[in-house]
Amino acid sequence: MSSEKDIDFVLRTVEERDIRFVRLWFTDVLGNLKSFAISPEELEEAFEEGIGFDGSSIDGFVSLEESDMLAFPDPDTFTLLPWRPTESGVARVFCDVYTPSREPFDGDPRNCLLKVFTKADKMGYIPNVGPKIEYFYSDSQHELRPKDDAGYFDLTPMDNANDLRRQTTLMLEKMSIPVQYSYHAAGPSQNGVELRFTEAVSCADNIVTARLVIKQLAAQQGMYASFMPKPVAGQPGSAMFLYQSLFSHEGENLFWAPKDYHVAHLSDLAQHYVAGILKYAPEFTLVTNPTVNSYKRFISTGEVPNYATWGRKNRSALVRIPAHKPGKHVSTRIELRSPDPTANPYLALAATIAAGLKGIEEKLPLPEESARDTFLLSQKELEAKGIRRLPRTLGEAIQNFEESELMREVLGDHIFDYLVQEKKHEWNDYCTAVTDWERKRYYGGF
Ligand SMILES: NC(=O)CC[C@H](N)C(=O)O
Fold it and tell me: Record's SUPFAM superfamilies (predicted)?
């Protein structure tokens, strides 16, 4: 599982840096971060034998009768938590969850992504991903109360979040998570952070860490950060774009093609990958957009995708191909625009990368580029072009997901069945709730 060298390095660091608490991290099926702390004395044994914990208390794990689970720390992910004191310090390490008989646990989202990663690896590819995460700051935990009126890339004295963004970047970099950009996004008090690409499993670990760091630093200033996809109607929503590419084991970007007849310098391999994403998008949308509110983000025109299309300049496309910079082959990548930050990053990456790989296996041709905003096309035009619509509600997303053989295969029965059951509950709760909007509109009438 892990090399002696990595483990030795971690154990030495723990001693040299006076670490008194080692937090073991993993997520539940929905992507909530779970953590428990062990003392450094227990760490060596944890690497060798795992540390037992009660899986029945974790959403989507196991039933009461078979509750003993093992967490095996992954030494590659060991890092200090820089917001904790340096004396008697605290470190964290991500864990893989195993069953008592030492099998990788089917309900562990990280394990699910590892499987897709291994599949890609066997095909000769390293999936690389860089995420761009948007979120809002507010001084209330319950609603968006913007602290500024700034817009996209604005840098004005109104931009109170300046310091918070700076601290977030520095904190992430201390944890070896390089930040490519941080900026004020389009909505009031809306911000964004783009992390440098890395292989898929580290990328998902980094997203989980970034979400925590963003919330943690906001809390230290008496503020709250929210990853809700659409906090206010009529205002921009928050996305979690995933920039994806496949590299060879030798470090070549396999998405880049030298010739101009290749669309936007996209290799045949990249074109099949994009075609796979477009074909399976309606099926994986439950995973990339898992909440009732996720679908409110889609109900707007312009920058948010509604259809499974691709384009170069068109920001309403599901997949956009950023302009190629001469000489920068390494940065040839696709921009997947539908995911939002409520997604479990492990599952979102597993599902979307698997869709791309399926496109390669099926040698799917890249459909025609959608140059104009797809929402301007009539139903007839859409049908004639074979363009698939993304689900419009959580209910529709569940239906598409439930019928998907690919999603069941990629996520495994455990996660697949849990998601269907859990999301049906959520959808039913929402459908049976009576809202203020309805009372305002119907109560006094008729
Ligand atoms: N940078 C952008 O294109 C904005 C994206 C937009 N906030 C969304 O929800 O998708």
Answer: Glutamine synthetase, N-terminal domain, Glutamine synthetase/guanido kinase
